[in-house]
Amino acid sequence: MIYVVADNIYTSLGFGSDANYHSVCKGLSGLRLRNGVFGVPQPFVASLFDRGEVDGCFGASRFASIGGLSLFEKSMILSASDALSRTDVDPASPRTLFVVSTTKGNVELLEQVADGRDSRLALWHSAQIVSRAFGNPNSPLVLSNACTSGLCAQIVADRALQSGRYDYAVVVGGDVLSKFVVSGFQSFKALSSDRCRPYDASRHGLNLGEAAATIVFAREPKGAFAFERGAIRNDANHISGPSRTAEGQYAALQYVMQGIDTGSVAFVCAHGTATLYNDDMESVALHRAALDDKPVTSLKCYFGHTLGAAGVLETIISLAALRDSVALPVLGYERNGVQYPLCVSPVMSKAKGNRFVKIISGFGGTNAAASFVKL
Amino acid sequence: MSRIVAYSRLTDSCFEVSGRSVAVERGEEQWITSAYRALGVSYPKFFKMDLLSKAGFVAAEALMSALGCEPTEPKPSTAIVLANSWSSLGDDVDYQSHIGADNYYPSPSLFVYTLANIVGGEIAIRHHISGESISYIDPRFSASRMVDYVDWAMADSTVERVVCGWVESFDRKIDVLLMAVDRTTDSGEEFTEENVEKLYNII
After folding, report:
1. Measuring CA to CA, how many Å separate B136 from each of A101, A137, B86?
2. Is the reported ipTM for this assembly greater than 0.90?
C-alpha cells in the first residue's frame, strides 16, 4: 500500500486535476472532429493539446531555460511540477524516484529523422529530461507496456517504495498524438468516426487523446487515499486482441480482490475504449469477478484514449469521484451492447463504498488491475 | 535466494544456451532465421514477426527447451520481465516509411509491432505464460536494474519463475540475454547483479 500525496492532470479540458474533474462533472468532452491535422488524410476525432498554450505555459515556467523540448516533454514537466508544488516532497532527493509511463514518446520526430538515429527518440531520454528538470539524481524508471503502462507504473512504484529504498515516487504518464499514432489506429479500423460510446450497442471504435498526468506517492501514511494492491496478467492468447474469456483481466482482478469485500467497492473505472472486443472482454472479466453489479465507468468519452497517460489520468479522476461518492456518467450511453450487461449510466449517480477498482488492457495481451481506497 | 536455472545469450554472432553453444548453419537467410532453424521447431507465426520478436522468440525457445518445458503447458505462475533501450524503434522506422505524403499505406501488421512489449506477448503466447508481463526501457543494459525488476515481479505472490532479460534489436543488431529465475530452488547460480553481469558479458 502506498499513499497518494498530490496529483495533476493536463489535457485539452484544462490544467490541474480539479479543472479536469470539474469539466467531467459538467459533461464536457475534449473530443473534437479533426480535419487535415498531422497530415492524416482522413478526418478523426481526438482530444488535442493547444500547442500554443503548452508552449506559453512552459515559457512562463521556471523550466523555460531548458531548450529544445518537445510537446510531450513539456506537458509532462508542467504536470509533475504542479503536482509536486502541492507537496513538501523534495524531488531532488535520492529518496525520490521518478517513474515515467509512455507508449510512443517523441515518435513524431521520425518525420524529420527517417533512420531513427536520434537519442530524442529514446523513451529513457525523455524520462531523463523530466527527472533532471527537477534535479533528481536517480535514473528514472520507464514503463512501456502498451496501454496498461500508466497502471503498471503505479504497481511498480508500489513495489519500489515497499523495497524501502525510496520515500516518494513521482509517477508521470504522457503521450501525444502524431500522424504515426493516428494512422496506425486508423489502419486497424479501431477509430470511431464520432465521439466514442463505451459499452453501448452502437459503439464502433475508440477516440485518441493527448494528456500528461502525475501522481506523487508516499511510502509512509499520508493524505486521504491509497493505492492498495495491483496485478498484471497476460492473456497468452493474441498480440492485438483480448481474450474472449478475459483470462488475463479476470486473473488480475482475482488477485486484486483477494480479501476485499465487494460491498466496499463504490465503482469500477474500466478501460472502456468503445472497441467491440475490449468492452465485451471487460464485461466477461467483471462478470467472472462478480463485480458486474457495481457502477462501471469509462472516461474515454471525455479524454479519448490517452495511451501511456490513461492509467494515471483515469486513476486521478476516479479518486475525486470516490471522494465525492459518485459514479461518473458515460456520455450518451443508451443501450447495453456487451455480453454481460454492466451498470453503465449516462447520468451521475451516488456510489457507496470506500474503494474503487481500476482495470486496463492493451496490445501484447497485457492486462492490469488495481484497487484504491479512501482511508 | 532466487537462482538462475537457465539462460540464453543471442547476438548476431553467438547463440549460447546455459553454457552450451548452439550450432547455427549460416546460409542465405537472415541470421535469426538460421538460428530459428537450428532449434528444429515448427512455429509458422515466427515468419510474421518483426526482428525484435524473432530475437526474443528464438532466445525464449532455447531457454524453455533447456528447462524441458512443454510449450503448451499453461504457466500461470511464470512472469515475463523484459527491458531494452530502443523500444520498437526499428519497427517504428519501417512503419513511418509507409505513411509518407506520397506513399500513404499504413499497415496494421507493421503497426502492431511498434510497441516495446509485443515481443513479451509473443513469448507469452508461444509458451502459455499468463503471469505478469512487463517491459522497461533503460539507457543501456543494467544488471542492477534487472535484479530490481525481477525482485519487484516476485512481490506478486503467485510468481514462482521469471523469464527475464534484455531484448534489443537496435539498428538490426541483435543483443539478447534471457534468464529463467526461480523463486525457490537449490540449483543454478544465485540471481545477483554480479552473476547477471557475467552472463551478459560471456561474449
Report:
1. 10, 19, 10
2. yes
